[in-house]
Amino acid sequence: MQYLSIMADLTAFLEKLNHVFIEKDRYKQMLIGLLNTFKITAGALVVGVIIGVIIAAVRTSYDKNKESMALNKGFGYYALSIINSFCKFYLTIIRGTPVVVQLMICYFIIFANARDGIPVAIFAFGINSGAYVAEIFRAGIMSIDNGQFEAGRSLGFNYLQTMKSIIIPQMFKAVLPTLCNEFIALLKETSVAGYVGVVDITKAGNTIAGRTYNYFIPLLTVALIYLIMVMILTKLVGILERRLRKSDR
Question: pLDDT tens digits, residue range 118-176?
Fold first, then answer.
């Protein structure tokens, strides 16, 4: 009797799966949503890294050179001070407001005429991620010993050449595991993209749930997909960290 009860429950569950995903090819919505999630995450990461590098370079340049530049108080000093203040303002605003609010501002106000929400989502999440990536890079640059800067100058490099050839490569190696963790956080943050009509994996699951009146299976599937992706990325980050530790020995 227990065996028959288990088989009956399994059959009922398979019927629900068929109703939720197979009928009317609803599983295709999940695949489209998953692809859009990858597009948004990858695009936002690229935008975030570009913004992060620029802001980190500005802020560390100001912190490391403000005393020497203040002696001359030339145009470069005032220009760098203004740019640094703008960067600090950007970091304060972006890190002090929720990402979903930033996303809606971008979609409904800044790009109100946009027909495709994916580029807007990439821009919004990229702007948000850039603030956190910038602080990651800034911490990495500030952790590099000042002797490395002096070594660059002894080779005849100017400040920019020293940053490009000596500091940045060491910084990337130091912050790469933290940057990968930011990528994992960004992947999960994209789950709010549905607020602006983007069919990501969360939006697809919620749509299927609304049409089938079954919220348990679609939303549990979405949670499992995110969990699997995060576990895979976490495993890759662990492998990367071990390899970096080995290379330091």
Answer: 999 999 999 999 999 999 998 888 888 878 777 887 888 877 788 777 887 788 777 88
173 vs 246: CA distance, rounded Å: 12
CB 205 within 8 A of CB 222: yes
Q: What is the pLDDT at residue 104?
A: 94
What burial letters (b/e) apply to 172-204, b meaning 16+ CB within 10 Å? eebbbebbbebbbebbebbbbbbbbebbbbbbb
DSSP for residue 73: T
Domains of the chain: 27-190+199-248 (1.10.3720.10)
Measure the CA angle with vertex 115, ends 121 and 198; round to 5°. Answer: 40
What pLDDT is recorded for position 90?
A: 95
